[in-house]
Write a structure and sequence with these properties.
alpha/beta; Nucleotidyltransferase, domain 5; 5-stranded mixed β-sheet; 7 helices; 5 strands; about 15% strand
C-alpha cells in the first residue's frame, strides 16, 4: 500500500468501473482514511463478491474520516464525453468531502481538475487502501442505482446486466428502443436507425 503518513489529509478518488455501460450515470467516490484504519478484505471492488462489497460499503462509511459519492449524469456523459464526465464526477466527489485534502490520489492515468495536489496511481485500488475503499463505495452505489432503474424500467433487465452491453441488453434495446437513462452517444448507430 502507498504510504501517506507524512501528509495531514489524503483523499483518494475512484470512478466506478462503469465507464463502458450503455446506460446510467457514471459514479465516483472519494474517501479519506486515517493511516491507522484497518479494514479487512479491502481490495479492488471488481475482485470482491457482491455480498462482501455490500458489507465493506457499510464499514468504509463507518470508519472513513470523510467520504463522498458523486455522479455525472447521462446527459453530462452525452454532452461532455465519458472521460470528461468521469473527471467531473471525481471532482465532485473530492469537493464533497467537507475537508480540503493536501493531496488526492486518483485511480488511473489521468487527473481531474481538483483544487489540491493530485497524483494518479495506475491500478490504485490494488495499492492504496483509500482508493480501494473509494472503489467499493462507487461500485456499490452504482449497482444500487441500477437496481432502482430496474424497478423503474423492468423491461430492460438493468438488475441483471447493470447497463453493460450484454446480449440481453441489446435484445431489450431492439425490442423497446432507447430510454431516457441510456447513453445516446454510446448507442449512436442504434439511435440513428430509429
Amino acid at each position: 500500500m502507498i504510504s501517506t503518513s507524512s501528509l495531514r489529509t489524503t483523499a483518494a478518488a475512484y470512478t466506478s468501473p462503469a465507464r463502458g455501460p450503455l446506460a446510467g450515470d457514471v459514479y465516483a467516490a472519494a474517501v479519506v482514511l486515517d493511516d491507522q484504519t484497518l479494514i479487512d478484505y479491502l481490495n479492488d471492488s471488481k475482485k470482491i463478491s457482491e455480498k462482501r462489497r455490500e458489507l465493506l460499503y457499510d464499514e468504509v462509511i463507518e470508519k472513513a474520516d470523510a467520504y463522498c459519492i458523486a455522479t455525472a449524469s447521462v446527459e453530462e456523459i452525452d454532452r461532455l464525453n465519458i472521460l470528461q464526465a468521469t473527471m467531473l464526477a471525481m471532482k465532485r466527489a473530492v469537493a464533497g468531502l467537507g475537508v480540503q485534502p493536501d493531496i488526492a490520489l486518483i485511480d488511473g492515468n489521468r487527473l481531474p481538475d481538483i483544487d489540491c495536489e493530485c497524483r494518479y496511481v495506475i491500478h490504485g485500488d490494488a495499492v492504496s487502501a483509500s482508493i480501494a475503499a473509494a472503489s467499493i463505495l462507487a461500485k456499490v452505489a452504482r449497482d444500487r442505482y441500477m437496481r432502482e432503474l430496474d424497478e423503474k424500467y423492468p423491461q430492460y433487465c438493468f438488475g441483471k446486466h447493470k447497463g453493460y452491453g450484454t446480449a440481453i441488453h441489446y435484445e431489450k434495446l431492439a425490442e423497446y428502443g432507447i430510454s431516457d437513462v441510456h447513453r445516446r452517444t454510446f448507442l449512436k448507430k442504434l439511435y440513428d436507425e430509429k
